């Protein structure tokens, strides 16, 4: 019988995986946008706004931004855990980062669906 | 007497000056280490730039007027420089991130592949940054 004593909050593996899955989503999205831009003979407001006019692209963009925000949360949390020791400051920064990212989610919906 | 000398020697050995913290200016990081710390620094920079980037996205899509205003605003040299710095952060984070994904897939398993890939990360991200800068000016 294996009797391992496991400690910690058990989010390590999940976050490790989330960091990579979100990275792949962002890489694919970035490649799509860059290829689209390179294929345009002329670039202006119409091409740019046209790219985001359809619902599939808006949804893909929202998926990209959600991936970005989740990815940023894990990264910022790791940085804060590495360099900021006092629990009160660490917690404050964590809360501020989360609040900012939640606000960015709301803002992103407003931008993409023109609210 | 002899006893005290021994004690003194012991004390000196114990109090031998040891670094109490990482002396960052004395540590010479290998290139993969530099790529790694820049990956972290560029990530933090991109996080700080997020509200500005969302603002740029918002203004660029809202209407032709806001789009034109934004284009005029971004023509300012200081903002161009900020844009170039953000672009470097993105490109470095992107290239170094791809390298880590390749490492996770065991595509770069020996030390020479790890070293040469870190050279590629620096070369590709910096040359793309320069190309972006040339187009910007």
Describe the model.
The complex is a heterodimer of chains A (115) and B (137). Chain A has helices at 12-39, 45-51, 55-83, 87-112. Chain A has 115 residues and is mainly α. Chain A has one domain: Fumarate reductase/succinate dehydrogenase, transmembrane subunit (3 helical TM bundles of succinate and fumarate reductases, Up-down Bundle), CATH 1.20.1300.10. The radius of gyration of chain A is 19 Å and the shape is elongated. The model of chain A has no long low-confidence stretch (mean pLDDT 93). Chain B has 137 residues and is mainly α. Chain B has a single domain (31-136), classed as 3 helical TM bundles of succinate and fumarate reductases, CATH 1.20.1300. Chain B contains 5 helices and no strands. In chain B, helix 2 packs across helix 3, helix 2 packs across helix 4 and helix 4 packs antiparallel against helix 5 (111-136).
How are the SSEs ordered, and which strands pair?
The complex is a heterodimer of chains A (115) and B (137).
Chain A: H1 12-39, H2 45-51, H3 55-83, H4 87-112
Chain B: H1 2-14, H2 31-62, H3 64-73, H4 77-104, H5 111-136
Helix pairs in contact in B: 2-3, 2-4, 4-5
């Amino acid at each position: 019988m294996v009797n391992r004593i496991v400690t910690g909050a058990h989010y390590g593996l999940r976050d490790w995986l989330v960091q990579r899955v979100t990275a792949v989503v962002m890489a694919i999205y970035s490649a799509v946008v860059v290829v689209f831009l390179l294929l345009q003979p002329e670039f202006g407001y119409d091409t740019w706004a046209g790219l985001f006019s359809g619902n599939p692209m808006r949804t893909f963009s929202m998926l990209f931004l959600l991936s970005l925000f989740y990815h940023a949360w894990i990264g910022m949390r790791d940085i804060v855990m590495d360099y900021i020791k006092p629990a009160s400051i660490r917690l404050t920064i964590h809360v501020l980062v989360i609040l900012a990212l939640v606000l960015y989610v709301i803002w992103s919906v407003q931008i993409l669906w023109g609210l | 007497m002899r006893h005290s000398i021994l004690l003194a020697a012991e004390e000196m050995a114990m109090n031998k000056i040891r670094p109490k913290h990482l002396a960052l200016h004395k540590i010479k990081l290998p290139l993969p280490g530099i790529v790694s710390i820049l990956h972290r620094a560029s990530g933090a920079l991109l996080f700080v730039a997020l509200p500005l980037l969302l603002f740029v996205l918002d203004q660029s899509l809202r209407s032709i007027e806001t789009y034109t205003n934004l284009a005029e605003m971004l023509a300012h040299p200081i903002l161009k420089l900020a844009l170039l710095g953000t672009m470097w952060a993105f490109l470095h984070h992107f290239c170094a991130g791809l390298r880590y994904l390749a490492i996770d897939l065991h595509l770069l398993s020996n030390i020479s592949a790890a070293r040469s890939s870190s050279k590629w990360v620096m070369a590709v991200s910096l040359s793309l940054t320069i190309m972006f800068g040339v187009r910007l000016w």
